[in-house]
From TrEMBL:
<protein>
    <recommendedName>
        <fullName>Dual specificity phosphatase</fullName>
    </recommendedName>
</protein>
<dbReference type="InterPro" id="IPR016130">
    <property type="entry name" value="Tyr_Pase_AS"/>
</dbReference>
<feature type="domain" description="Tyrosine-protein phosphatase">
    <location>
        <begin position="86"/>
        <end position="228"/>
    </location>
</feature>
<feature type="domain" description="Tyrosine specific protein phosphatases">
    <location>
        <begin position="149"/>
        <end position="207"/>
    </location>
</feature>
<dbReference type="InterPro" id="IPR029021">
    <property type="entry name" value="Prot-tyrosine_phosphatase-like"/>
</dbReference>
<dbReference type="GO" id="GO:0004721">
    <property type="term" value="F:phosphoprotein phosphatase activity"/>
</dbReference>
<dbReference type="InterPro" id="IPR020422">
    <property type="entry name" value="TYR_PHOSPHATASE_DUAL_dom"/>
</dbReference>
<keyword id="KW-0378">Hydrolase</keyword>
<feature type="region of interest" description="Disordered">
    <location>
        <begin position="1"/>
        <end position="60"/>
    </location>
</feature>
<dbReference type="Pfam" id="PF00782">
    <property type="entry name" value="DSPc"/>
</dbReference>
<dbReference type="InterPro" id="IPR000340">
    <property type="entry name" value="Dual-sp_phosphatase_cat-dom"/>
</dbReference>
<dbReference type="InterPro" id="IPR000387">
    <property type="entry name" value="Tyr_Pase_dom"/>
</dbReference>
<dbReference type="InterPro" id="IPR029006">
    <property type="entry name" value="ADF-H/Gelsolin-like_dom_sf"/>
</dbReference>
<feature type="compositionally biased region" description="Basic and acidic residues">
    <location>
        <begin position="1"/>
        <end position="21"/>
    </location>
</feature>
<keyword id="KW-0904">Protein phosphatase</keyword>
Length: 358
């Protein structure tokens, strides 16, 4: 009897396990067949399929019956994949999109495109250089990428196309971050908009846009600095692009604004002031709206090409920021008193007379 019980025990356990499995299987099968539970149990795999398509709109709206989404056409048209083939019109002459559109000659011509700004020039070629005028920008879609320095030359390229009755297509890879950021900046400058109205203007034509946080920060900071520049002295450093992959190597890069104190050196015997020795290979634009003063300062070691770029930069700032119409070119060591009066007011000099470098 003991041996029989020993052999019965595993059999009993096996039977119980089999019954438990059968019970679970029957429960699952019964649940799958009950219509009342379909909405609660079935959506899980469907949510997984739809997540990527819904992420740019309202990803929290996932607990309703997903069958309703199939007839919701406005949501379908805002998916990134849908806009990959869209040449989105922002204004009468300005369009935004991605590389797929940039490679479609017939689509570009159908929209009347004549000029193209390639914001992803390191990874996207100029597909039709014989048909369109290109401006190449090797930008990365990264928060640390400086886009501000390119704004004014981009504005000039767009306006030149507009004057020729042309139309401009600004593109990156997907038309989501880099190219929309440039379109937003243009609207801010040309239509005197602040950041968020300009952003919503572009988003209205292309709902999938999503400039990265670094671009948004730069646009917001640029907006604030433009307002401040009308109340205080503003300094920009001018550079020339040395990127061999860019068609804009002759266009100036406008860096700043920079605090005037950052470029000055004050000797212990006030009021002797000079531009710091480290900047003798630089050009700076110095502006004061309050005193209606403009000048281009050039260090001892600057090239003629850089001076020409600084002149061009000054004219761009006059065009897009309404700075004074005339300006002087000042060489290092030949600064007039008016230059120092604007750059380092007497009150600042007195308050910092114990420091060699402000």
């Amino acid at each position: 009897m003991e041996m029989k019980r020993k052999h019965d025990l595993p059999s009993t356990v096996a039977v119980k396990e089999e019954e438990l499995k059968t019970h679970k299987r029957l429960s699952i099968e019964a649940t799958d067949e009950e219509p009342l539970h379909v909405v609660e149990e079935e959506p899980a795999p469907q949510v997984q399929k739809q997540t990527k398509q819904k992420r740019t709109r309202n990803p929290g709206n996932l607990l309703l019956d997903l069958s309703q989404m199939e007839t919701n056409t406005p949501l379908c048209h805002t998916k990134k994949i849908d806009y990959a083939n869209e040449c989105s019109q922002v204004t009468e002459f300005l369009y935004v999109g991605g590389a797929i559109v940039a490679a479609k000659q017939e689509l570009l011509l159908a929209h009347g495109i004549t000029h193209i700004i390639n914001c992803a020039a390191t990874v996207t070629p100029d597909f039709f250089p014989h048909l369109f005028s290109y401006y190449r920008l090797p930008l990365r879609d990264h928060a640390t990428q400086d886009i501000h320095r390119h704004f004014y030359t981009i504005f000039q390229f767009i306006d030149k196309a507009r004057e020729e009755n042309g139309k401009v297509f600004v593109h990156c890879v997907k038309g989501i971050s880099r190219s929309p950021a440039m379109a937003i900046a243009y609207l801010m400058a040309r239509e005197r908009l602040s950041l968020y109205p300009a952003l919503e203007r572009v988003r209205a034509s292309r709902p999938v846009i999503d400039p990265n946080a670094g671009f948004i920060f730069q646009l917001n900071e640029w907006d604030a600095l433009r307002q401040q520049a009308r109340k205080q002295v503003t300094v920009f450093r001018i550079e020339r692009s040395d990127d061999v992959d860019s068609s804009s190597t002759k266009n100036p890069l406008i860096i700043g604004p920079i605090m005037p104190q950052k470029i000055c050196s004050i000797s212990p015997e006030i009021p002797t002031v000079s531009i710091h020795e480290d900047h003798q290979s630089c050009c700076f634009v110095v502006l004061s709206m309050e005193t209606n003063y403009c000048s281009v300062w050039c260090g001892r070691n600057v090239s003629d090409e850089l001076i020409d770029s600084a002149r061009t930069a000054m004219r761009l700032l006059q065009t897009y920021e309404a700075y004074p119409d005339s300006f002087d070119v000042i060489m290092s060591g030949h600064e007039p008193d008016s230059f120092w009066t604007v750059l380092v007011p007497e009150s600042q000099t007195t308050s910092t007379n114990k420091n060699n470098v402000i």
